[in-house]
Amino acid sequence: MLDKRSPMPMYYQIQEDLKQRMDSGEFVPGTMIPSERELSEHYDVSRMTVRQAMTNMVNDGYLYREKGKGTFVAEQKIEQPLQGMTSFTEDMKQRGMEASSRLISFETIPATVEIAKKLNLDESEDVFRVQRIRSADQKPMAVETTFLPVTLLPELTEEIVQGSLYQYVEDKLGLSIEKATQMIEATVADDHQANLLEVPKNSAVLMIERNSILTDGTPFEVVKSAYRADRYKFISGIYRS
Ligand code: 16G
Prior knowledge:
- The protein is an alpha+beta fold.
- The chain is built from seven helices and ten strands.
- The strands form three sheets. A six-stranded antiparallel beta sheet has the order 4-5-6-9-8-7.
- Helix 1 crosses helix 3 and helix 2 (36-43) crosses helix 3.
- The two termini are 41 Å apart.
- The relative contact order is 0.12.
Protein backbone atom coordinates (compact mmCIF):
# COMPACT_ATOMS: atom_id res chain seq x y z
CA MET A 1 0.00 0.00 0.00
CA LEU A 2 2.91 2.34 0.69
CA ASP A 3 5.36 2.91 -2.11
CA LYS A 4 8.72 1.94 -0.64
CA ARG A 5 10.61 3.24 -3.65
CA SER A 6 8.99 6.66 -3.51
CA PRO A 7 11.15 9.63 -2.44
CA MET A 8 8.27 10.53 -0.09
CA PRO A 9 9.17 9.37 3.42
CA MET A 10 7.13 6.47 4.80
CA TYR A 11 5.71 8.52 7.69
CA TYR A 12 4.49 11.09 5.18
CA GLN A 13 2.76 8.44 3.08
CA ILE A 14 1.06 7.09 6.21
CA GLN A 15 -0.16 10.58 7.07
CA GLU A 16 -1.57 11.02 3.57
CA ASP A 17 -3.28 7.63 3.70
CA LEU A 18 -4.86 8.36 7.10
CA LYS A 19 -6.04 11.78 5.90
CA GLN A 20 -7.63 10.14 2.89
CA ARG A 21 -9.39 7.67 5.15
CA MET A 22 -10.72 10.62 7.13
CA ASP A 23 -11.92 12.37 3.97
CA SER A 24 -13.63 9.23 2.73
CA GLY A 25 -15.62 8.98 5.95
CA GLU A 26 -13.95 5.79 7.17
CA PHE A 27 -12.52 7.70 10.15
CA VAL A 28 -15.08 10.21 11.38
CA PRO A 29 -14.27 12.67 14.22
CA GLY A 30 -14.13 10.86 17.54
CA THR A 31 -13.10 7.50 16.01
CA MET A 32 -10.23 5.75 17.76
CA ILE A 33 -7.61 4.92 15.19
CA PRO A 34 -5.81 1.53 15.30
CA SER A 35 -2.89 1.14 17.71
CA GLU A 36 0.74 1.73 16.75
CA ARG A 37 1.26 -2.01 16.60
CA GLU A 38 -1.73 -2.59 14.34
CA LEU A 39 -0.74 0.27 12.05
CA SER A 40 2.87 -0.88 11.82
CA GLU A 41 1.64 -4.33 10.78
CA HIS A 42 -0.90 -2.87 8.39
CA TYR A 43 1.63 -0.61 6.64
CA ASP A 44 4.54 -3.00 7.13
CA VAL A 45 6.79 -0.37 8.69
CA SER A 46 8.46 0.06 12.08
CA ARG A 47 6.50 1.38 15.05
CA MET A 48 8.85 4.35 15.11
CA THR A 49 7.72 5.35 11.64
CA VAL A 50 4.08 5.07 12.69
CA ARG A 51 4.82 7.09 15.82
CA GLN A 52 6.37 9.87 13.77
CA ALA A 53 3.31 10.04 11.52
CA MET A 54 1.00 10.10 14.57
CA THR A 55 2.98 12.82 16.31
CA ASN A 56 2.92 14.99 13.20
CA MET A 57 -0.81 14.51 12.83
CA VAL A 58 -1.42 15.34 16.49
CA ASN A 59 0.70 18.49 16.11
CA ASP A 60 -1.20 19.45 12.97
CA GLY A 61 -4.56 19.00 14.68
CA TYR A 62 -5.84 15.98 12.73
CA LEU A 63 -5.60 13.62 15.68
CA TYR A 64 -5.63 13.95 19.44
CA ARG A 65 -4.40 11.66 22.16
CA GLU A 66 -6.20 10.68 25.34
CA LYS A 67 -3.98 9.35 28.08
CA GLY A 68 -4.50 5.65 28.68
CA LYS A 69 -7.14 5.40 25.95
CA GLY A 70 -5.67 5.93 22.51
CA THR A 71 -5.47 8.27 19.57
CA PHE A 72 -8.62 9.72 18.08
CA VAL A 73 -9.70 11.60 14.96
CA ALA A 74 -10.15 15.31 15.71
CA GLU A 75 -12.98 17.57 14.53
CA GLN A 76 -12.47 19.12 11.11
CA LYS A 77 -10.88 22.54 11.27
CA ILE A 78 -13.10 25.56 10.76
CA GLU A 79 -12.54 26.92 7.27
CA GLN A 80 -12.61 30.68 7.43
CA PRO A 81 -12.84 32.56 4.11
CA LEU A 82 -10.63 35.61 3.94
CA GLN A 83 -12.91 37.57 1.59
CA GLY A 84 -15.86 38.96 3.52
CA MET A 85 -15.41 41.14 6.57
CA THR A 86 -17.54 39.25 9.03
CA SER A 87 -17.70 39.26 12.80
CA PHE A 88 -16.99 36.26 14.98
CA THR A 89 -20.67 36.11 15.96
CA GLU A 90 -21.76 36.09 12.31
CA ASP A 91 -19.15 33.48 11.36
CA MET A 92 -20.35 31.06 14.00
CA LYS A 93 -24.02 31.66 13.24
CA GLN A 94 -23.40 30.82 9.57
CA ARG A 95 -22.01 27.48 10.66
CA GLY A 96 -24.86 26.74 13.01
CA MET A 97 -22.57 27.11 16.01
CA GLU A 98 -23.12 29.21 19.06
CA ALA A 99 -20.69 32.10 19.57
CA SER A 100 -19.80 33.23 23.06
CA SER A 101 -17.29 35.55 24.64
CA ARG A 102 -15.56 35.34 27.98
CA LEU A 103 -14.25 38.70 29.05
CA ILE A 104 -10.71 38.55 30.41
CA SER A 105 -10.10 42.28 30.79
CA PHE A 106 -11.71 45.59 29.98
CA GLU A 107 -9.66 48.70 30.63
CA THR A 108 -9.03 52.22 29.46
CA ILE A 109 -5.38 52.93 28.72
CA PRO A 110 -3.37 55.64 26.96
CA ALA A 111 -2.67 54.56 23.38
CA THR A 112 0.83 53.33 22.70
CA VAL A 113 2.70 54.85 19.75
CA GLU A 114 1.75 51.83 17.61
CA ILE A 115 -1.96 51.85 18.47
CA ALA A 116 -2.23 55.66 18.22
CA LYS A 117 -0.76 55.52 14.74
CA LYS A 118 -3.07 52.73 13.61
CA LEU A 119 -6.18 54.36 15.08
CA ASN A 120 -5.16 57.79 13.86
CA LEU A 121 -5.11 59.20 17.40
CA ASP A 122 -2.72 61.46 19.25
CA GLU A 123 -0.27 59.53 21.34
CA SER A 124 -1.63 58.90 24.86
CA GLU A 125 -5.24 59.50 23.85
CA ASP A 126 -7.47 57.03 25.66
CA VAL A 127 -8.32 53.69 24.10
CA PHE A 128 -10.28 50.73 25.37
CA ARG A 129 -8.26 47.57 25.58
CA VAL A 130 -10.59 44.59 25.64
CA GLN A 131 -9.47 41.01 25.90
CA ARG A 132 -11.98 38.28 25.13
CA ILE A 133 -11.90 34.55 24.59
CA ARG A 134 -14.08 33.73 21.62
CA SER A 135 -15.70 30.31 21.78
CA ALA A 136 -17.73 28.21 19.37
CA ASP A 137 -20.15 25.80 21.04
CA GLN A 138 -18.29 26.48 24.31
CA LYS A 139 -14.90 25.51 22.87
CA PRO A 140 -12.25 28.26 22.91
CA MET A 141 -11.16 29.23 19.39
CA ALA A 142 -9.29 32.50 19.78
CA VAL A 143 -8.07 35.11 22.24
CA GLU A 144 -8.81 38.58 20.91
CA THR A 145 -7.30 41.80 22.16
CA THR A 146 -9.21 44.76 20.76
CA PHE A 147 -8.18 48.44 20.89
CA LEU A 148 -10.95 50.98 20.31
CA PRO A 149 -10.89 54.80 20.51
CA VAL A 150 -12.77 56.00 23.60
CA THR A 151 -13.93 59.15 21.77
CA LEU A 152 -15.68 57.03 19.14
CA LEU A 153 -17.38 54.60 21.53
CA PRO A 154 -17.60 56.57 24.79
CA GLU A 155 -20.38 54.43 26.22
CA LEU A 156 -18.84 51.04 25.64
CA THR A 157 -19.31 48.71 28.60
CA GLU A 158 -18.18 45.29 29.73
CA GLU A 159 -21.68 44.03 29.09
CA ILE A 160 -21.66 45.18 25.45
CA VAL A 161 -18.42 43.42 24.58
CA GLN A 162 -19.74 40.16 25.94
CA GLY A 163 -22.06 40.23 22.94
CA SER A 164 -21.25 41.27 19.37
CA LEU A 165 -19.08 44.37 19.03
CA TYR A 166 -19.97 44.80 15.35
CA GLN A 167 -23.68 44.61 16.11
CA TYR A 168 -23.25 47.37 18.68
CA VAL A 169 -21.19 49.55 16.34
CA GLU A 170 -23.62 49.15 13.44
CA ASP A 171 -27.04 48.76 15.02
CA LYS A 172 -26.72 50.82 18.20
CA LEU A 173 -24.25 53.50 17.12
CA GLY A 174 -25.37 53.56 13.48
CA LEU A 175 -21.78 53.57 12.24
CA SER A 176 -20.95 51.91 8.96
CA ILE A 177 -18.01 49.51 8.84
CA GLU A 178 -16.37 49.46 5.44
CA LYS A 179 -13.16 47.48 5.30
CA ALA A 180 -10.07 46.19 7.07
CA THR A 181 -6.52 45.17 6.47
CA GLN A 182 -5.60 41.81 7.91
CA MET A 183 -2.24 40.24 8.60
CA ILE A 184 -1.71 36.59 9.46
CA GLU A 185 1.41 35.27 11.10
CA ALA A 186 2.36 31.82 12.40
CA THR A 187 3.49 31.64 16.02
CA VAL A 188 3.21 29.51 19.15
CA ALA A 189 1.07 30.04 22.23
CA ASP A 190 2.80 31.59 25.22
CA ASP A 191 1.79 30.59 28.76
CA HIS A 192 -1.07 33.06 28.99
CA GLN A 193 -2.54 32.26 25.58
CA ALA A 194 -2.11 28.50 26.07
CA ASN A 195 -3.97 28.74 29.32
CA LEU A 196 -6.86 30.70 27.84
CA LEU A 197 -7.09 28.56 24.71
CA GLU A 198 -6.82 25.33 26.72
CA VAL A 199 -3.92 24.00 24.67
CA PRO A 200 -0.39 22.96 25.73
CA LYS A 201 2.19 25.75 25.86
CA ASN A 202 3.95 26.28 22.51
CA SER A 203 1.03 24.90 20.50
CA ALA A 204 0.75 26.41 17.03
CA VAL A 205 -1.43 29.52 16.83
CA LEU A 206 -2.27 31.88 14.01
CA MET A 207 -1.85 35.50 15.00
CA ILE A 208 -4.19 37.74 13.07
CA GLU A 209 -4.21 41.48 13.24
CA ARG A 210 -7.19 43.32 11.80
CA ASN A 211 -7.23 47.11 11.37
CA SER A 212 -10.78 48.17 10.55
CA ILE A 213 -12.11 51.36 9.02
CA LEU A 214 -15.54 53.03 8.83
CA THR A 215 -16.95 54.25 5.50
CA ASP A 216 -15.93 57.82 6.36
CA GLY A 217 -12.32 56.67 6.66
CA THR A 218 -12.13 56.65 10.48
CA PRO A 219 -10.13 53.70 11.88
CA PHE A 220 -12.26 52.14 14.60
CA GLU A 221 -10.51 49.01 15.82
CA VAL A 222 -7.15 47.31 15.98
CA VAL A 223 -7.60 43.66 16.90
CA LYS A 224 -4.82 41.23 17.66
CA SER A 225 -6.06 37.66 17.86
CA ALA A 226 -4.47 34.32 18.53
CA TYR A 227 -6.43 31.56 16.79
CA ARG A 228 -5.91 27.88 17.60
CA ALA A 229 -4.13 26.46 14.56
CA ASP A 230 -5.60 23.03 15.29
CA ARG A 231 -9.12 24.44 14.91
CA TYR A 232 -8.77 27.00 12.11
CA LYS A 233 -7.64 27.29 8.56
CA PHE A 234 -7.98 30.43 6.45
CA ILE A 235 -8.94 30.23 2.82
CA SER A 236 -8.84 32.78 0.04
CA GLY A 237 -9.76 32.69 -3.63
CA ILE A 238 -7.24 34.29 -5.95
CA TYR A 239 -7.39 35.44 -9.56
CA ARG A 240 -4.65 35.45 -12.14
CA SER A 241 -5.33 38.77 -13.78
C1 16G B 1 -13.75 38.93 14.32
C2 16G B 1 -12.66 39.90 13.93
C3 16G B 1 -12.46 40.98 14.95
C4 16G B 1 -13.77 41.64 15.30
C5 16G B 1 -14.75 40.60 15.75
C6 16G B 1 -16.10 41.20 16.06
C7 16G B 1 -10.94 38.51 12.81
C8 16G B 1 -9.55 38.11 12.72
N1 16G B 1 -11.35 39.29 13.79
O1 16G B 1 -13.37 38.09 15.34
O2 16G B 1 -11.60 41.95 14.37
O3 16G B 1 -13.58 42.58 16.34
O4 16G B 1 -14.92 39.64 14.73
O5 16G B 1 -16.93 40.14 16.50
O6 16G B 1 -11.69 38.11 11.98
P1 16G B 1 -18.23 40.33 17.34
O7 16G B 1 -19.10 41.29 16.59
O8 16G B 1 -18.81 38.97 17.47
O9 16G B 1 -17.83 40.93 18.67
